[in-house]
Structure formats: C-alpha cells, structure tokens
Amino acid sequence: MLNAWAIATVVAVVGGVVGFFVVLRGAAFAAHAIPKGAFAGAAGANLLGVNTLLGLAVFSLLAALGIGSLGRRGRHDVVTALALVMMLALGALFLSRSTEYEPEIFSLLFGEVLGVSVTEILPVAALGLACLAGVAFLYRPLVYSSVVPEVAEARGVRRQRVEIAFLLVIALATAMTVPVVGALLIFSLMIGPPAAARSFTDRPPVAIALSVVLALVTVWAAIASSYLTNWPVGFFVGSFSACCYGAGRAWASWRRRAVGDADRRLLAA
Questions:
Q1: To 5 degrees, how large is the angle CA 228–CA 230–CA 235?
Q2: Which of the four, 80, 105, 163, 229, has the lowest number of CB atoms within 10 Å?
Q3: CA nearest 132: which of 213, 245, 21, 4?
C-alpha cells in the first residue's frame, strides 16, 4: 500500500505540471493519442518478455516524434489520429500473440497501482524527474509559444522545436503514468486537474501549483476510495478529475457573473 501512495504521488506531481501545458497549448488530442502508443509498446514488451516500462517509453517516444515531425507537413489533428489508429492496431496485434491476455489487457488499459512493487518506484521517479527537468528547461518558450505565439516567433523561439520537445515530455510522462492509471485513464489525470486550475486562475505559476495540488488530492482520494470499496482506482481517478473540472467551471461562471454585476452597478451609479 505504501508503494501505491509513493508512486501515485510522483505521478500526480508530474501529471499536474505537464498537464497544465497540455491544457494551455490545446494539446489534449496528442496527450490522448500518445498513451495509446505507450499501450502498444507495453503489449510488445510483454510479448517479448522484457521490462514493460521500457516498451512504454520507446513506443511513446516514437509516437511523439511521429506526431511532431509529420504534423508540421500536414494537418496536425489528422496526423495525430493516424498515429493513434496505427498504435492501437499494433497493440491489438501484440496482445493477440500474447498468452497472458486478460490480466495484461486490464493492467495496461486501466492501471494496477495497488499492485506496484518497490522495484518500480525508482524508474518511475527517475522518469518523473526527467519530465520536471524538461518542463523547467522549456518553461519560458512553452509559455510564450502557447500564449503569444507571434511574439515568441519574433523573439526567436522555434515553435516547431518547442512542440516536438514538449511532445517528448508528454511521452515520458505517459510512460511513467501508464502503470498507475492505465493507457485509457491517463487522459483524465493530465486534463481534469490542470483544466480546473486554469479555471481558478490565469497566472501560470499559481495555476501549475494548484494543478499539482488538485492532482494529488485526486489520486490520494482515488486510492483511499478504491481501498474502502474494492472498486478500480481508475474509476475514481476519472470521476474525481471530472469533479475537479466541474468545480473549476462553476467557479469561473460565478466569477464572470459577479464581475458583470459589479460593472453594471458602477454604470448605474
């Protein structure tokens, strides 16, 4: 159980930081597609009998490089969709050749955080530190190219290079989070809390910190709820992430109405 808390904490911190820029850059579709590439890699690694984390990392990096490189020559959404379809096809092929079919499918798709061993914590923590270091190194170019892309280009920021570098960060984050929440539910952890944080504040540093806090609360509450009910952790991660986003949108709506009422009172005075 302590292993689950430790690895979920690492995943939540990285998911909250990386997810903020996923939401800010409107890269939710890519963040949805890359885990499917990781899923295929994990299936292939399981078939070959090598470390699943290695397969996750290799295939998610290949998916990120493919989307980033081909996306600049065509429509980004079409390239992302084709990469998603190709990776799912490979995952289906690898799983069809595997003898450990049902347990592995469930683990890869929905995660198995309560079954994490102590030997898995160090590799996941190393990938997490690499993700955070990458975001720290790219912080200013990411913010500029996301918020004011024209100004970023005028200041010499290469948007395409920044895009590929950020996709690689997403790939690393994906590789480390699949064992916890699975390929299907990474999307919820990297989108729900960061999107809610963006609704509460427009200041990037504050939003990143709030995103991490919400992600931590989501994962910790999901593990506790799963332990008490024996329901899948992924179900609670997805549900609590959606609740975070709903609360953020409700706050944003209330704030708009309050500001509008204050403006009308000033005009009437």
A1: 100
A2: 229
A3: 21
The model carries a pTM of 0.80
User: Residue 32: what pLDDT?
Assistant: 75
| C-beta of residue 226 within 8 angstroms of C-beta of residue 236 | yes
Please identify which residue in the block is written with the tokens 């890869």.
108
Say how many C-beta atoms besides its own lie within 10 A of residue 215's C-beta.
Answer: 32
Q: pLDDT confidence of 99, banded at 50, 70, 90?
A: low
Tokens of 166: 């950020």
Instruction: For residues 117-130, give the mean pLDDT.
Output: 80
* pLDDT, average across residues 33-38: 74
Distance between CA atoms of residues 177 and 128, nearest Å: 9
Task: In whole angstroms, give the CA distance from residue 198 to residue 152.
Answer: 21
Per-residue model confidence (pLDDT) at position 207 = 92
Q: What is the DSSP string of 173-188?
A: HHHHHHHHHHHHHHHH
Is the CA virtual torsion 56, 58, 59, 64 positive or negative? positive
Q: In this predicted model, what pLDDT tens digit does every residue of 4-16 receive, in sequence order?
A: 788 788 888 888 8
Chain Cα centroid distance, residue 100: 27
How far apart CA 179 and CA 189 sit, in angstroms, is: 13
Write out the H or E segment, with its range, that includes residue 252: helix 233-268
